[in-house]
Amino acid sequence: MPRSTASAAWDSGGEPRDTRDNRTSENVPASGHGGADALRGPTGDPLLAAKFAIPAVPRTLVRRQRLLDRLTTGTAGPLTLITGPAGAGKTTLAASWVAEGSAPGPVVWLTAEHEDRAPGVFWSYVLEALRHHQVELPEDPDRPGSAEFVEYSMLARLASGLAHQHRPIVFVLDGLDQVPVREVASALDFVLSHAGPSLRLVVISRVDPLLPLHRYRAQGRICEIRSAHLAFTRQEAAALLRGHGLDSCEESVDVLTARTGGWAAGLRLCALEMQRADDPNGFARSFAASQSAVADYLLAEVLDTQPEATRDLLMRASILDRVHPDLANTLTGREDAEWILAGLTRAGAFVESIAGTRWCRFHPLFAEVLRTHLRHHHPGLEPRLRRRAAAWLAGHDRLTEALEQAAAAEDWEWATARVVDHLEIGRLLTGPEAHRLENCFAGMPRDLPGTASALVAGACAASQYDLAGCRAHLDRAEEHIRTEQAQPSPETQLALALLRLLSSPGTDREGGCDAVQEADRTLDLAGHVPPSRRVQHPEIEALRRYGLARGLLLTGHLGAARTAFAAAADGCTGATDVVRHHSLGQLALLESLRGELNEAEEHARFALATARNRSVPPARQSGIGHLALAAVALERGDLRGARHHLDLASECPDAEHDPGTRTEMLVLRSRWNLAQGRWRAALAAIGAPEVRPPTLPPWPSQRIALANSAIQLARGDPAAAITALHGAGPDTSAHVIALARAHLASGDPNRTLGLLPPPDDQRDAGLAQRVDILLIRAHAALLAKDTETAHSTLGEALTAARPETLRRPFLEAGPWVRHLLELRPETALRHAWLTARLAAVNGTFPADRLPADGSPSAPLVVEQLSDRERQVLQHCAQVMSTEEIAGAMCLSVNTVKTHLRSIYRKLVVSRRGEAVRRARELGLLF
Asked: Which residues contact 865 (CB under 8 A, 6 or more apart)?
């Protein structure tokens, strides 16, 4: 018969062994809980009652229902594990849960400490905790007779006694990480397994205990509350600040939550400091202030508890955002970094592993404290460590991180040479890491000697739309090249040519050859770079294509620019989404100018989606896509939509700096105001001629001239409209049409028709231009009393415009369009796509022209009268003579007659009475 297990104890391997001969009478209490030594452990030291006390709940406690519910759910099973770093709120959570009264039965609390690591001492505290919290066992287990081991019989009696409880016992064991002894964990697992459902163990620890957690997980018998669960959400952080009387600091919640990572202790310490600060929100925005608030805590609770080798590694590796064991070994000169980092990660020492990799990261506040510690104890070491890290990172194809380290060490020579020699110049302008690379060189002095530094400075200027500054740096780079003895490398020449192309001012008025020649030269230089390197840098070709397209656009070669932007967008990859975003926006804008509204809208929305879905940095996002949508909206008569997209475009960084984008913004705002009859606001939008930049490229210059001409025409001054077009850039179809429209308004139909291309020769004109030409021809026919030709030509224009819902030409044409449609109401009904949108504009068709169903046809817009013309018309309605009107308005008689002629033209009438009657029909007079 085997020996009774009552005489066995648990050894260090977790197996029972005989210990009867080791027990002495001095170790056995006189009775279960009585006697003088009832509160003494096997070492003879007293058992400290404070360890059985349930911690008090802080007055500023934030009640976090999601965690309380998780804990309640967990204690329905045998094991609940709460793990997290120091100050994560583990103990506070459990104590608040107990205070809520949500436990399924009596709660026993034991706080373990490092001195309790001896098995006998630990289990003595367990038994005394049960007695302290008045849990009566059917048979009192024997007290451990030795500090070094416990008897199997004691564990068996304890498990049996717990199993016979009428209600579940919730045993909260706080600080099990202080007792990292395998035999303690083995014995704890034994009791938990044999106590049945009557024991609900809640373990609070900074690290995973030595319990067989894999088995509990596989059996579904464990609930885990980890660091990620304990981190404060934004709402919880806001509640914490309010609990500290910081109700006015709502704006600081996001920055504090991000900086602390939701770490409970960090938030509370910052809140306490904010209470004492004169400017609480300013304190929250200061990283240094937040660091000082938690520095003592982190040093005492984390850093000072580590061995010397670990502290050294932590300080040296703190210069990195992410730490690799091999890189840490490079920084420390050791070979055990992987083992140390793994231990820190398991210990929850504010070091966390990055899933699926060998990398890990430090908590940001902890890293800042470590760096401060490094600078204090090892002055001058940080730059050397950063240079060492930069070399390692560059050698492992992590160039962006390498450049960040070199920049932090202010090793500009190494960093700029690396960018140029490895053809990384394009990545400063496009790609997902462009903004990070630009930030690397934000602190670099812009007058550093050397070709590479000048090229990098030029690229940084170009990325900020400072094209003049970019060209100045490129001039400096060329000066360095001329003074150097050696021939510049192909990479250097290619970087210089590419930046020259992208920063071209676009002022070539002789055919746009500069952009073509620069693009061809860039392509030729790219051929001298090793093919493998070209494959690694697709952004070079993407930027070359974009630079060519931009140059063609600024010099007014719109057809070639449109083709080039489409090619640039099609040739982009995921690494060149910035180029795709800009190219699609420019393509959409050119399509909107041609009247290809459906494609323009599609490409513009694709451009904006590229920025959203491909994570184009905000600093690189262009407003050109929104401008294209605003142009589409204006072409369709949707003023509200146009205003919406103009406002969005104005928030983009290129709205004020890029000459093309800024010009288009001004022109579209001017057109928006003009569409509402506000010609003064329209003129103010594009600015007075004397304050406009004299060096505008040809195409932006012409866009301003076209807008000015339209304004002058709207205010009834055809001569000024013609003058505005003189010397206005390339001879595009838009320029010809604007000139023809102005001559027609001035009463010169022959000159008008002579300017227009023949009907069979409009190959280069877009839909919008073709419709404009048709309307001008129709208006000229009407003025020549050829009503039939006018009507048929108007119908042709309506039919052409219908697929794109192109309304703008008809809105700008004038009231004669309405006049013709009044004569043919069936045409108006057939083209309700135009008339229905204009219901809010003045006037309706006469009652005798209603459709058969009695519903009124939608009104047509009229060419807006100027304020002075409206006043003249009001006086005409009062049956005042020309002389009386002149006297009332303090004008000359000839000026009044000029206004009357303009009114007749706009309202398509020939006498005053007709003008007054039509104005009333259109709602211009009341």
From this structure: 677, 873, 903, 906, 924
